[in-house]
Amino acid sequence: MKAIRIVAAFIAISLIVLSVITDNKQILYYTQFFIGAMLLIYSISEFQNKRKARAVYLLFLAGIIVLMGALSLSN
Fold first, then answer.
1. What is the pTM of this model?
2. Of the candidates 37, 38, 39, 13, the residue with the CA atom closest to the CA atom of residue 27
């Protein structure tokens, strides 16, 4: 789980830097997807550590962020 979390964070940071350097706003939607994936992984880790309140909160945030990114890509 930790390796997947690090890879998702690295991809998100790389996309943010690329978006700033190239001034391409379309890349930010993919960044939202990877940040949502990161939050989803964090919520699974929290469920495993028996912290259900925090896990549900992170799961809710991950769902909203991934949904916003997916809706923005379809336009």
1. 0.77
2. 13
